[in-house]
Amino acid sequence: VTWPMIFILTAQLLYINACMKGEECIPTTWDIFYEKWGWMLIYWNLAGVPFVYAFQANYILVNSLRTQNPTEGISMTLIMVLFVILVLAYYIWDSSQAQKNRFRMQQRGTYVPRSAFPQVPWNTLKNPKYLKTECGSTLLIDGWWKYCRKPHYTADICMATCWALSCHQWPGVLPYFYPAFFFGMIVHRYTRDVARCKAKYSKDWKTYCDRVPYAFIPGII
Fold first, then answer.
1. Are the C-beta atoms of residues 10 and 4 closer than 8 Å to each other?
2. Which helix (H) or strand (E) holds 19?
3. Is 102 within a domain?
4. Which pLDDT tens digit goes with each residue over 30-41?
5. CB contact set of 81 (below 8 Å; sequence gap of 6+)
6. What residues of the chain score a pLDDT lower than 70?
7. Domain count for the chain
8. Which DSSP helix (H) or strand (E) runs through 205?
9. CA angle 97, 87, 35 (to 5 degrees)
10. Element (H or E) spanning 131, and its range?
């Protein structure tokens, strides 16, 4: 078992476990709440996820067996950098989504503390700041969400890119399909979300954007 394989399996285990331990948050995700359970989601989850999300591990395995030299070309410096980025990105991704979803649950009075592993630090905000809108909804402006409007998107893209870079031993474009597809999907989803929020919140959305001016990376974009 090589270090690239250890890395990608660790990354995928963290991702899978996050979905399992945070299952109570799944119903409020964009996929379920807005896309609904239609042909697109059914097709993608049955045909896309099993192949695209598992591709990097299979790519490393197949090429290791094909070349009979699974350690040739491994950059340990890159692997160590990828581990650092993965841990940081996962932490931001996990904690930011926990902050948002638990804030919603607290507002509705449905929040129940859970101990599913791992419970990362700063995943629940106490007395968070928020913006009250005229339509009755609240917009979180605390925690990670005071720095940018989509911290979990940025972290998710970083993790997807790390997955692809774990295949650096054997140059090719196929490992990069997942981050490229994911980036396009995220940008498209962001534009749809902005349009929906502008229509829903009207002038309150402008106030929110003035309070949190950056979408993905604080100080940049």
1. no
2. helix 3-21
3. yes
4. 777 777 778 888
5. none
6. none
7. 1
8. helix 203-211
9. 35
10. strand 130-132
